[in-house]
Amino acid sequence: MAYDKFTVLKSTAVPLPIENVDTDQIIPARFLKATERKGFGDNLFRDWRYQDDGSPKRDFILNNPLYQGKILVGGRNFGSGSSREHAAWAIYDYGFRCVISSFFADIFKNNSMNVGILPVQVSGEFLEKIFRAIEADPHTELEVDLPSQKLTILATGEHVSFEINAYKKNNLINGYDDIDYLQAMKTEIASFAANSIYSL
Amino acid sequence: MWIFFKNFANTFRIKKISGMPTTLFDKVWDAHVIRHVQDGPDVLFIDRHFIHEVTSPVAFLGLEKRGLKVVYPERTFATADHNTPTQNQHLPVKDPLSANQLQALERNTQRYGISHWGLGNPRNGIVHVIGPENGITQPGMTIVCGDSHTSTHGAFGAVAFGIGTSEIEMVLSSQCIMQPKPKKMRINVDGKLGKAVTPKDVILYIISRLTASGATGYFVEYAGEVFRQMSMEGRMTVCNMSIEMGARGGIIAPDEKTYSYLKGREMAPRGEAWDKALAYWKTLPTDEGAVFDQEYRFDAAEIEPMITFGTNPGMGLGITQSIPAAEGAGSGRSSFQKSLQYMGFQEAEHMLGKKVDFVFIGSCTNGRIEDFRAFASIVKGRKKADHVTAWVVPGSHQVERQIREEGILDILTEAGFELRQPGCSACLAMNDDKIPMGKYAVSTSNRNFEGRQGPGARTMLASPLAAAAAAVTGVVTDPRDLIEE
């Protein structure tokens, strides 16, 4: 599925300073029953966001109109647990394009990049700085510059660089994906498959 | 069916040229790299691909949109497990959304010529139970599935891990995925396990020591006496939960136990092909002197029967111990407190004696025959506690048949337990098997996340022995107290 190209994103951010946010919290299993990729944003953080009767929980950050934006800032080990890509879809569908954390679970990180979300890993200290900046002023803007791999807290000018491999970076900037890349390797793959040890 | 090792000689050549002592993981991964993208991922060829009803439909839609075909349908195997009911499987599935996903799987597999062991098929069951059971899983393979517990198959010396739906689409359309090669970790556990200490306790102990993110970025090889002595079922339990400490996957060197488990299984090689396969498999174990990026050593004697007290699998402790103080969690202090609050537990409380409302035995972690044998060994001659609701769910129809044939069903029935039909069931509660809000469950599954077993459900992860002990006493109980010497 095509996604929006990612170059420079300037936005306010939503802070979620909780560690080990697992994919069951991002999207509970009972909402994985769709056969199409539609409407997952409605159930993003479902059980933290809504009461049993469907009314919003006032104290959850997504229900606080003060905090808006295309960037989600999460605590350490964000996206642990299940491999469900639905978690990344829910985050994208809700409107986030970037998730910042001090540590990401592997599968979630892969899934995010495959659907057009940029995971930005920063140090624990810088993450704290971001949380503090947003706490002090919810309108704090962050700038995520993918081409130069730089994250800046605009109000203070504090910035860090972040890692991403050149291949994935190029994909995100241009809206390319692995499926097309692999299609272009068909002949190479076919000859490998023909010699595969575990042919059937 | 299995043909020949066409590039058998090739594999040996790679090894010879490199000359360096190599790990099991490297041998298998490197043999499947078609291309290394500069400053990017490896293009990895996938030998076997499992799919199920929940994470595959959007991948098939993607194929349709792009006008792509399934290139090697014979390498993909489909089963229905995640949202299937565990009662009355002969009737139409009531939940329309679940039914829709099951039908989509049937339609998609039919359309592209993929084998499908759906509901009612005698080979149906949880994907990570039926793969090994039918000999699909073999040493040296790369195996993926849109499910994080695909790491289970590493018990056979395969490189196996969970993938997302975009990657499912990649495998269907190209038989490859693109991933950076993970780092390597080895976890050695030597010595002898104590009484009632099971493979589940070993892995819960390891995760409690490394934390829920301690192996992120790594592929873990489990080595040492404890794993060498362990049955294939036990090794699967251990590898299964590798993901719960963040590892990409877990792997254990194939040995005589692996080969004798596989021999004669339906999809396993036969005759000359078996001999060739065996010769190759024997070259796979990690060479003496191979280097890992990270290594841990644990002493088997330190491991008690385990139980979790919090909302991630790293929050586990010996069943006789008390809940640690939040202070120890450092920067994670508030998350730790949030977790205890969800569980309704306090710091310094003992786990023994806590009331249990539900017991679940099953899942891809502990839904194999050995797990039900263990469960039955404790409930035999005892009765289920009146206030406990127990869900006993085999991992596959084959396990279900074994339960009947071995007389385990009689023991269960006598003790007041009812056997359900196979599926993932209460592990992720996508079907009706949901633990109610606020209730406590001792569960043999793999995740104690908030709401994992139903909104508001409070999960304590443990072994089949500890689950059985809780089921008959109605409280958290040390299984050692119920086992005679």
SSE inventory with pairings:
The complex is a heterodimer of chains A (200) and B (485).
Chain A (H helix, E strand, L loop, with lengths): L7 E9 L6 H4 L19 H4 L21 E4 L11 H9 L3 E4 L4 H10 L2 E4 L2 H13 L4 E5 L4 E4 L5 E3 L4 H9 L3 H6 L2 H9 L6
Parallel strand pairs in A: 1-2, 2-3, 3-4
Antiparallel strand pairs in A: 1-5, 5-6, 6-7
Helix pairs in contact in A: 3-4
Chain B lengths: L7 H11 L5 H7 L2 E4 L5 E4 L2 E4 L5 H10 L9 E4 L16 H17 L2 E3 L9 H7 L8 E4 L13 E4 L2 H10 L1 E4 L3 E8 L8 H12 L7 E6 L1 H5 L2 H9 L8 E3 L4 H7 L8 H11 L12 E6 L6 E3 L7 E3 L14 H11 L14 E4 L1 H4 L2 H11 L9 E4 L4 H9 L2 H7 L25 E4 L14 E4 L2 H10 L12
Description:
The complex is a heterodimer of chains A (200) and B (485). Chain A is of the alpha/beta class and 200 residues long. Chain A is 32% helix and 16% strand. Chain A has eight helices and seven strands, in the order βααβαβαβαβββααα. Chain A has a seven-stranded mixed sheet. In chain A, helix 3 links the parallel strand 2 (71-74) and strand 3 (98-101). In chain A, helix 3 crosses helix 4 (106-115). Chain A starts with 7 loop residues before the first strand and ends in a 6-residue tail after the last helix. The model of chain A has no long low-confidence stretch (mean pLDDT 96). With 485 residues, chain B is of the alpha/beta class. Helices cover 33% and strands 16% of the residues of chain B. Chain B is built from 17 helices and 18 strands. A five-stranded parallel sheet of chain B has the order 5-4-3-6-7. Residues 1-17 of chain B have low confidence and may be disordered. At the A-B interface, helix 4, helix 6, helix 7 and helix 8 of A face helix 1, helix 3, helix 4, helix 6 and strand 8 of B.
